[in-house]
């Protein structure tokens, strides 16, 4: 199937836009790579420190400078259900790597926090910034320069993006992402949402709410709704950074352990010493990023990735923006119905065919690039298989042609929608993103008076006082990364849903985050620039007519221009958001963070370095830039 012209157009635009920073990035990779094992550059005392505590046989291998050393970087903690399974992984990995003659070392841990635990709490204001702290922690783990490949153990919201950003700063090192899998299905997401809405109305007791939540979140593994954590796993599959079909296999099962062992041994194979060298920096390129955006749209994934994918791309010297997301969304069909964009959870999605089915369908439709590098080599179609056990060994076989359940997963010829449901809205209030895949069409346009709130707590006080039984657009201000770290505002979802169910026309506009949990209520989020960066959301006053139009892609305050121009920016006392629960430690993050459309990140694009590596000649395309992806493939073929 020929590549769709819009996909090709957006990809070419990204390549052109990114050329200087991408070439600089690839030059950095080439400069960091050494002949032989990476630890060969260490002095004797450095290396002695690096293997002092290891068993004699492993120590001998490390001293010989022949066999690769594999880093384990893990987000394990046993408070969070998704990360608890990683407790047993290091031993499994070390044993598996020893079987193929190499050594694995636990290089370091990274923090892992959960938006579910911190939702509506002060700790949530550290959540987005934790992504970049995780990237920095990954760099610290790898900074010893001991390693020839790496296994990244992470799964949830900021953890996988943070690990990948850190990994890309060591892009000369091959890397594989190793997930833990989802928990088994508990009560349905629909029932869980119903209990929350009844509690918000005062129709359910706290004990009933607690019982419902405990039945929804009941065991080891990720939450089963399709939020950011499970969107991460879909993207790692599409980007070729998982072994095929690894995302949604349950924890503590024989297949899960076999996949972990296989990932460990494959990491050895793709090291320089393993003969199939495939550094992660040459996997994550412009086409890979476009593929990831396509997968996000095709599955109705989390809007948090309009931040995270931007930051990930920039770590690899690639510049994308919300126009790219918007244009791709218009041509990528929606192939799944997974909560909050349907009733099914990720376990039903997996049973119906899962990520590998989506990858195959997008390839067959010409909506993603097949000519990319993955951990399996060249070609994304290698990832269109599902894993099974043959004894204790994992094997892969072709997918069935048809979906296992067309109410959950469909072929590209019969999609749920002809677009991805993620759109850009813009106007005199700035630029924002909306996820409308779960929003009914009669709510795609809301025009109503503004009600401004400076916190989600202020909104909830008004709701509980019965002051919101009307048509309105809630403008939740001072929620951007500079203001308070851009927390998720999920606590507002049940209240807004109740008001919408009561027949009121409601919407939300905010410079904060909402992600997929916004569900059926129209929400223009990540408004950029935020108020503290001079964003016009600070000019809105109660009673202004606000038009949120997902059909036309507009976000407007219908205020006369002379009145609008005469207004002064709103202010708020944010001191209480900057201290307590460790928030004072992140002051430097708030002061240096980039805009939401630039990933709400803290790391600059790669800068050029001088290189004396000669150009290669005599190829079909003529001269090849040293360190480029083409240069890598050219040298790999020799």
Strands, helices and their partners?
Elements: H1 5-32, H2 44-51, H3 56-63, E1 69-74, H4 89-99, E2 103-109, H5 115-118, H6 127-142, E3 149-153, H7 159-168, E4 175-178, H8 189-201, H9 206-216, H10 228-238, H11 254-269, H12 286-298, H13 305-315, H14 322-329, H15 346-352, H16 354-364, E5 373-374, E6 377-378, E7 385-390, E8 393-398, E9 422-427, E10 430-435, E11 445-453, H17 456-464, E12 472-476, H18 481-484, H19 493-501, E13 506-510, E14 523-528, E15 545-549, E16 554-557, H20 561-566, H21 587-592, E17 616-619, E18 622-624, H22 629-637
Parallel strand pairs: 1-2, 1-3, 3-4, 11-12, 12-13, 13-14
Antiparallel strand pairs: 5-6, 7-8, 9-10, 10-14, 11-15, 15-16, 17-18
Describe the structure.
The protein is of the alpha/beta class. It is built from 22 helices and 18 strands. It has helices at 5-32, 44-51, 56-63, 89-99, 115-118, 127-142, 159-168, 189-201, 206-216, 228-238, 254-269, 286-298, 305-315, 322-329, 346-352, 354-364, 456-464, 481-484, 493-501, 561-566, 587-592, 629-637, and strands at 69-74, 103-109, 149-153, 175-178, 373-374, 377-378, 385-390, 393-398, 422-427, 430-435, 445-453, 472-476, 506-510, 523-528, 545-549, 554-557, 616-619, 622-624. Strands 9-10-14-13-12-11-15-16 form an 8-stranded mixed sheet. A 4-stranded parallel sheet has the order 2-1-3-4, sandwiched between helices. It is globular. The two termini are 30 Å apart. [4Fe-4S] cluster binds at residues 156, 223. Pathway: Carbohydrate metabolism; Entner-Doudoroff pathway. Its EC number is 4.2.1.12. Belongs to the IlvD/Edd family. GO terms for molecular function: phosphogluconate dehydratase activity.
């Amino acid at each position: 199937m020929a590549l769709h012209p819009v996909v090709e157009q957006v990809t070419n635009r990204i390549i052109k836009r990114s050329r200087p920073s991408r070439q600089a990035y690839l030059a950095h990779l080439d400069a960091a790579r050494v002949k032989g094992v990476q630890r060969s550059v260490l002095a004797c005392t450095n290396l002695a420190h690096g293997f002092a505590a290891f068993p004699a046989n492993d120590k001998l291998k490390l001293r010989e400078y022949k066999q690769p050393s594999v880093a384990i970087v893990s987000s394990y903690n046993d408070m969070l259900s998704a990360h608890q399974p990683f407790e047993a992984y290091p031993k499994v990995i070390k044993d598996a790597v020893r079987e193929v003659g190499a050594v694995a070392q636990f290089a370091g841990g990274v923090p892992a926090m959960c938006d579910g635990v911190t939702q509506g709490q002060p700790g949530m204001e550290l959540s987005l910034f934790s992504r970049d702290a995780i990237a920095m922690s990954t760099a610290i783990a790898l900074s010893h320069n001991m390693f020839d490949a790496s296994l990244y153990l992470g799964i949830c919201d900021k953890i996988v993006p943070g690990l990948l950003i850190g990994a890309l700063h060591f892009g000369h090192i091959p890397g594989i992402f190793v997930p833990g899998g989802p928990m088994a299905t508990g009560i349905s997401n629909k029932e869980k949402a119903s209990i929350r809405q009844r509690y918000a109305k005062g129709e359910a007791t706290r004990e009933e709410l607690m019982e419902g939540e405990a039945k929804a979140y009941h065991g080891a593994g990720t939450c089963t709704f399709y939020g950011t954590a499970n969107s991460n796993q879909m993207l790692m599959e599409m980007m070729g950074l998982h072994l095929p079909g690894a995302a949604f296999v349950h924890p503590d099962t024989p297949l899960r352990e076999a996949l972990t062992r296989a990932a460990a041994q494959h990491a050895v194979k793709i090291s320089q010493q393993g003969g199939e060298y495939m550094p992660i920096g040459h996997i994550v390129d412009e086409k890979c990023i476009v593929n990831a955006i396509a997968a996000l749209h095709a599955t109705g994934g989390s809007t948090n990735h309009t931040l995270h994918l931007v930051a990930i791309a920039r770590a690899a010297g690639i510049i994308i923006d919300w126009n790219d997301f918007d244009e791709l969304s218009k041509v990528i069909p929606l192939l799944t119905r997974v909560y909050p964009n349907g009733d099914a959870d990720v376990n039903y999605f997996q049973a119906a065919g899962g990520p590998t089915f989506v990858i195959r369908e997008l390839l067959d439709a010409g909506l993603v690039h097949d000519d990319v590098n993955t951990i399996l080599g060249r070609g994304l179609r290698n990832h269109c298989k599902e894993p099974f056990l043959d004894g204790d060994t994992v094997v892969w076989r072709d997918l069935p042609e048809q979906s296992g359940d067309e109410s959950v997963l469909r072929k590209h010829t019969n999609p749920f929608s002809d677009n991805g449901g993620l759109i850009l809205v813009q106007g005199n209030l700035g630029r924002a993103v909306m996820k409308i895949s779960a929003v009914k069409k009669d709510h795609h346009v809301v025009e109503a008076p503004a009600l401004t709130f400076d916190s989600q707590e202020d909104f909830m006080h008004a709701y509980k006082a019965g002051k919101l039984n009307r048509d309105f657009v809630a403008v939740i201000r001072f929620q951007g990364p500079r203001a308070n770290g851009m927390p998720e505002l999920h606590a507002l979802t049940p209240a807004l849903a109740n008001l919408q169910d009561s027949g009121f026309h409601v919407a939300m506009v905010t410079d904060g985050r909402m992600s997929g949990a916004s569900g059926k209520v129209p929400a223009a989020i990540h408004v950029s620039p935020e108020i503290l960066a001079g964003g016009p959301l600070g000019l809105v006053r109660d009673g202004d007519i606000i038009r949120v139009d997902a059909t036309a892609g507009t976000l407007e305050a219908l205020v006369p221009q002379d009145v609008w121009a005469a207004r002064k920016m709103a202010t708020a006392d944010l001191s209480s958001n900057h201290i307590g629960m460790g928030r004072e430690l992140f002051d430097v993050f708030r002061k240096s963070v980039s805009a939401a459309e630039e990933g709400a990140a803290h790391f600059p694009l790669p800068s050029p370095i001088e290189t004396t590596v000669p150009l290669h000649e005599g190829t079909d395309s003529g001269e090849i830039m040293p360190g480029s992806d083409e240069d890598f493939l050219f040298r790999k073929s020799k």
